[in-house]
Design goal:
The protein is an all-alpha fold. It is built from 15 helices and two strands.
Length: 329
């Protein structure tokens, strides 16, 4: 296995802009006085107007909920969405980091389980650590050590040999990837983490993306696999403007109902995946889905019936991504 060459990257596929979080628009009149100067595009697009209306119609301001989270997701949302990182967060970040790395195995994994390793690497990304961190480095090297598989003759696929991984995956709904078939789940999640930590140009990551570009269609597998693969292809430079992504967006558009949801697909993961796409067809679907975001909010300001932290992350980070679309225009 060749060495990892670090390229400066960011948690999301888009560059970071000096831009007030879109969530702050709805929170400007909050009692915590989070109001700041807001960015408005010279032309009010339908998606921007819909987003403004949605944020103003939220049943509960999610600030209090986010402020209560003592977790990597909470630290990330306060830092990147609310723009309100406290001294307590700095202490919490250190504590969570020390606990996380203390549980890491000598080979770089966490208990030789893909799911546990991937989720802990995602947590380290949420905390703000990059590929220069020793624990991140060894964790990514372990991921690449299981990239030994081909799928229908296409190379670059990840799959651990731990028999506990499939059942662990099915019982875990944490992070940006959901429990599809094992090899697609592990491959897309691993490639995404390498993207997050700045390795888009690594030939092994490019091999994975190129393989998907050769055979993948949005109807190739089940619902979770569809979103997992499309999410990866939307964010990677080699594939984000590709025909498979275009076909995937068209497929989702056909599945979207009058309520804004996508028939047969997980709403929050689909909403978040589309928020990273620049294509007009993705923006049209996001606009249609925004009223459903309001309807689905819980009474405490969170979202989701299960794994509320993950679901709330998907919503609030998606709104942030939508805001960055306007910062680029």
């Amino acid at each position: 296995m060749g060495p990892l060459v670090f390229v400066v990257g960011s948690f999301r596929s888009k560059p970071t802009f000096e831009f007030t979080s879109v969530c702050m628009i709805a929170f400007a009149q909050d009692q915590h006085n989070f109001g700041r100067k807001l960015y408005f595009p010279s032309k009010l697009t339908p998606l921007f107007v819909a987003m403004m209306n949605t944020l103003n119609e939220l049943k509960i301001n999610p600030v209090d909920y986010v402020s209560s989270l003592d977790s990597p997701i909470g630290i990330y949302l306060r830092r990147e969405v609310l723009k309100k990182e406290s001294k307590a967060d700095a202490t919490l970040k250190k504590e969570v980091y020390q606990k996380t790395v203390a549980e890491q195995s000598p080979d770089g994994s966490w208990d030789q389980l893909f799911v546990k390793t991937a989720n802990n690497l995602w947590n380290l990304a949420l905390l703000g650590y990059n590929a220069q961190d020793p624990s991140v480095q060894t964790g990514l090297e372990w991921l690449l050590s299981i990239q030994k598989h081909s799928y229908h003759g296409y190379p670059g696929f990840f799959c651990s040999s731990n028999r506990k991984d499939p059942s662990t995956m099915r019982s875990t709904l944490y992070g940006e990837f959901g429990p599809g078939c094992t090899i697609f789940y592990q491959t897309t999640y691993a490639a995404h983490l390498l993207h997050v930590f700045g390795f888009d140009q690594d030939r092994r990551v490019e091999t994975t993306v190129k393989s998907y570009l050769q055979f993948w269609k949005p109807t190739w597998c089940g619902a979770w696999c569809t979103i997992n693969v499309l999410r990866l292809l939307i964010e990677h430079p080699l594939s984000k403007e590709s025909t498979p992504v275009e076909n995937g967006l068209k497929h989702l558009a056909k599945l979207q109902t009058k309520t804004g949801a996508w028939k047969g697909l997980p709403f929050y993961h689909t909403f978040h995946a589309l928020s990273r796409a620049d294509a007009p067809l993705a923006k049209e679907q996001l606009e249609k889905a925004l009223p459903s975001v309001v309807r689905r909010q819980n009474e405490d300001g969170s979202w989701g019936r299960k794994e509320e932290e993950t679901t709330s992350f998907l919503v609030l980070d998606a709104l942030r991504n939508i805001g960055d679309i306007f910062a680029e225009e």
